[in-house]
Design goal:
about 120 residues, alpha+beta, about 55% helix
Amino acid sequence: MSKAQRIGQILGEVIRDLGLAKRLSEQRAVVDWPEVVGARVAGHSRALRVDGGMLFVQVDSSVWAQELSLMKRRILRELNARIGKDVIENVHFVVGGANPYGASGVGSAQAEDHGEG
């Protein structure tokens, strides 16, 4: 057990020394998106990436963009509580194509191509 603890400590130090801790937290926000917003919302949206504290989320319609904009404070609070830090400062909703969304990431390459036009 002590070796496993030492390896864990070493990995933690390497991650911190390489400056990867923040990037890992940002990625966790993207991965945890479906759990934070729930299955219904995740069915109409997908977190794409984090850039400078801004989480970019693609939604399938302007109606969903508006709905999620109204929920933004709660979403930010829950995401940052899950991550354990105030990594995500804001969320930007981008209306994308009619790709199916959700935790499976179906259509992810298409979503990124259409989400930032």
